[in-house]
Amino acid sequence: MTDSIQTLPLKSINGFASGLSISRKRSRDSSSFNPSLISIPNVSLNYQHQNGQFGELTLLNDDISSQMYQQQLEIDRFVVHHTENVRTEIEEMRRQNARRLIAAVHEGITKRLKTKEEEIIKIGQMNWSLEEKVKSLIVENQILKELCETNEATANALRNKLQQVLAQIQLPHHEFADNSAKAKATSALVDDAESFCGSNYEEDHERDRERKVSDRWCRSCGKEESCVLLLPCRHLCVCTSCVSSLNICPICNSVKSAAVVVNMNLF
């Protein structure tokens, strides 16, 4: 098709050029104007020949224009198709990048949330252990308070006995000077009172010591020291080995709801 397009204009142009050369040669040969030499039929033939050549050029130009138009349309379609493909690829790459970014952000947030949850669990466990420690300290404080009250009551009783003995000893000096026998009797009474009070004190002290010693041992096995406080009766009467096997208090037979280990080193 290209060869035909290129050769046709050359032929038509050569023909047109040959016509022009013929007319130029004729014009050169006739140096002067001679009306008798003009031939009308030759002019009409030349005109027809030139009209045919121009018609061929017009058809050729129309064919070339149509082919160029078709090629331009094909180029436009190719450009549009390529542009659409590029746009689609760019959008797909953008979506993939967005998905990767979202996945990375989601993974980072998930890791941070997991770390925070672990920290919350650890803090909760620490709070629970601290609460249990506070409860144990409260119970120990209550036990110490009760022991202090008991010791204070014992000290008050001993103080009252001592005051009674001192009141019996302190007699008026004039009565002691007037009646020596009475003074001797009073002295004997004081001695008896002192010996009686001392013996009572020693007996009470021995009895308290024995009671405390007996209370220190486990009421269940009797082999280990009592260091577990039963609730709600608050009796310190069992050891750590027996508390798991007991459901009732050995002293008051009340149902055990809880048990607290008491640090006996504080006493």
From TrEMBL:
GO BP of this protein: regulation of programmed cell death
Claim: Zinc-finger is one of the keywords in the record: yes
GO MF assignments: ubiquitin-protein transferase activity; zinc ion binding
Keywords: Metal-binding, Zinc, Zinc-finger
Keyword Metal-binding: yes
Superkingdom of source: Eukaryota
Name of the protein: RING-type domain-containing protein
CDD domains: mRING-HC-C3HC5_CGRF1-like
Pfam families: zf-C3HC4_3
UniProt lineage: Eukaryota, Viridiplantae, Streptophyta, Embryophyta, Tracheophyta
InterPro entries, per the entry: Znf_RING (IPR001841), Znf_RING/FYVE/PHD (IPR013083)
RING-type domain span: 218-253
